Every structure is written in structure tokens, then in C-alpha cells.
């Protein structure tokens, strides 16, 4: 088979896939503690305000701020201590802070009616049991959090599709959401192809190697929040591959196969992908290194991606084409995709017209983050293990020099 398709950029490949993918995942309700890392299935609104009452942020005395105006260490404002608020207590049920009065307050306690600020205990002195001197004035609103200042009742708090983080669980707890509607994680089928492959528990004979990609891709799918299913090793045989692909397509939302994607005579992936259904193969080749011989197809709304056989290439392409899709269901123009800037330790050549992805090891040197390329061919899985991230060299560049800044995403 010749080069039937022109090589696409990563973004063109994403657009082509995105146009035909129908990510329509079912919804399930899970307890809040099981919602970490899951995608929210609907917009959520806060029923209650947080906090539900105005509260102190310090230990001290609730006062009327104007009673403290002009107070200094040499001329304190003297106030009568007429009450105390305890933690968790309804301060409004006790009474009201009057003019010239102060109530003892714990951090987080409810501000009593009448008071509009809290003086920190450090800026008071006890004159006797019932009188304090305030040595520094407070402004109205000082050292308090207003009712609804964190979250207003009725406010939209999180949107559909959001990937829930630890702080999101905290917020949902705060607004009383104890069970969360989330999208069922997409099922991803993983097939490894090649006559040379044997299982991990087998002893490889001459010319044989153990399957690496099934495990690495499975791990990447788990890390991206999907449910991977291994469909095992398939020999380089068109009909066997077609059968396995069909089975995986029925059972999964997305199918990945690795190997058999380049243009050798025995390479069958592109041919098999094109016979599965409409629209079929959308591109064959991406202008990146490593990862060029990638085949992208969509069959009845489900993405089917033929990843290159070399383990590093397969993992890089997974990171670029599969992870964003599993995370968000669609391809977003994500400004945080390569969030780390680091200085390169050595000159690296790169061909213009092709995006290069370098495995790099990040560390600190002279107070600065540096990226040291992990050199080695794309068949060497150990290079991925030594690397901490992936750096991108833009396609218009013919190389990058030692000391240049590069953008890195962490593994
Ligand atoms: N004449 C050319 N040869 C190659 C080209 C090219 O442009 N012209 N491209 C090279 C590049 S780049 C890559 S990447 C590979 C892609 O090869 P395939 O996707 O067709 O994959 P295979 O030929 O089946 O395997 C390549 C390599 O990877 C090993 N492999 C495959 N699957 C696994 C697995 N599950 N676990 C471990 N290792 C695996 C396989 O044994 C081969 O060594 O083609 C280059 N060739
Ligand atoms: O581009 Mo291949 O994908 O170098 O290893």
C-alpha cells in the first residue's frame, strides 16, 4: 500500500476525528467519595449558601467597628464583655452586641447581631473579668466571612463535563451534594498485533518479544479515567484482526490497536480499519516524530486508532490523540496541555514541517527547571521510564538549542 493519505498535523487529526465522533456516554449516580476523577454529567447548582451565616475568621471579640475607631496601644478603646459565642452555637438566639460592648468569639463562630467586625485577641488586653482594652481599630467587615461569600444560594457551581478534582469534592460536600451524577467512563478496547509478540508469562524464542503495548496503553487508559479491556495479541492476519476489531467495536466506545500501521507489505491495520464501516479511515500518517505512521478512523461514531508498533510512538500518540478525548469527550484547545516551561540542556535537531516530541527528564539547576532529553530509539520502553515528561518542538523549528525554553507536559 502506498501513501494514500497526506500526513496531517496533530490538530488536523483531532479535527477529523472530532467531526465524526459521537461520545454519548450513559450517566450513573455515585456517592461523593467515589466521584474523584469522574466527569460530571450535568450542571450543578448550590441549594444552600456557604457559609450559611456570617462567621469570624479569627479568635477574638465581636464588636461594633466604630467603637474601636482611634484606638491605640497608649489610648485603648474600653469595651464591656457582655457575652460569648461557642462553636456551632446560634449567636442570634443569645442576644445582640450593644454599643460599647464586646463578645468573645472563636474562629469560625457565628457573628452575633449588632457586631460588624471581630478584633483579634492579640490586639486586646484584659482589664478585668468584664472589661477589655482594644489597642488597634478594626474596619467594618474585618476578620469575618459574610454569609454566602464562598458560594451564593442558587449559584451555578460546576458544569457538565468537568473532571472532578479534590477541591470539587470539598465544594460538593459543602453544598450538600452527597451523590453525584457522573458519566460512565468510556470503554476502550486494546489490541496488540504482530507475529513476533508473545505474552508476558511466556519465554520469548529467537525473533520474539513480549507484548509491551497492551500494558502501557492499558495504564494510560486507566490514568485518563477510562475502562480499558485487553483483546490480546492478534497475528498479522487480515481476517483474524478484522474479527477481533469487530468484537471490540461492539463491546467498546473506542478501539486502539498497535502495530501494523506503517507501509510494509504485512501491515494490515489501515486496510482492516477501512472495512469496518463508515466513514472509516480519515488519515494515515501524522507529521510528528515519533508516531508518524498512525491511522485514524471512525466507525459509526466510535474512534478506532491504529497506533504505531514502537512502544514510545504508541504512547506518544495515545497522549496526543486519545487522552484528551477520554478526559473531555471532545478535543478542546487546551492552553494547559504543555504547562511547564523548562530550559533545554542540549541542542536537538528537528526537521521543519514536523512536530517533534522529546522524552525529557526534568530537574532543578541553579534555581531553574531544566529539561534533559532522554535519548534513544522509539522502540525502547526504558526511555519512557527514565523520562518525567514529554516536550514539544513546534513544526516550524529546525531545532532547539541548549538554553532555549521548551514546553513540557508531565507524564
Ligand atoms: N521502511 C520503513 N520502515 C518503517 C517506517 C517507515 O517509514 N519506513 N516507519 C517506522 C516507524 S516510525 C515506526 S513507529 C514503525 C511502525 O511500525 P508498525 O506500526 O507497522 O508496527 P510493527 O511493524 O508491527 O512494529 C514495529 C515495532 O514495534 C514492535 N511492537 C509492535 N507491537 C508491539 C507490542 N505490543 N509490544 C512490544 N513491541 C511491539 C515490533 O516488534 C516492531 O519492533 O515502523 C518503522 N518502520
Ligand atoms: O515515528 Mo516511529 O513512530 O519513530 O517510532
TrEMBL record:
Q: What GO biological process terms are annotated to this protein in UniProt?
A: Mo-molybdopterin cofactor biosynthetic process
* Documented EC number(s): 2.10.1.1
Annotated GO CC locations: cytosol
Q: Where is the MoaB/Mog domain?
A: 189-328
Tell me the cofactors it needs: Mg(2+)
InterPro entries, per this entry? MoaB/Mog-like_dom_sf, MoaB/Mog_dom, MoeA-like, MoeA_C_domain_IV, MoeA_C_domain_IV_sf, MoeA_linker/N, MoeA_linker/N_sf
| SUPFAM superfamilies per record | MoeA C-terminal domain-like, MoeA N-terminal region -like, Molybdenum cofactor biosynthesis proteins
Q: Which pathway is this protein assigned to? A: Cofactor biosynthesis; molybdopterin biosynthesis
For this UniProt record, give its keywords in alphabetical order, as a comma-separated list.
Magnesium, Metal-binding, Molybdenum, Molybdenum cofactor biosynthesis, Transferase
UniProt-listed NCBIfam families: Glp_gephyrin, molyb_syn
Task: Give the protein's biological function.
Answer: Catalyzes the insertion of molybdate into adenylated molybdopterin with the concomitant release of AMP.
* Protein name listed in UniProt: Molybdopterin molybdenumtransferase
Organism (species): Sporotomaculum syntrophicum
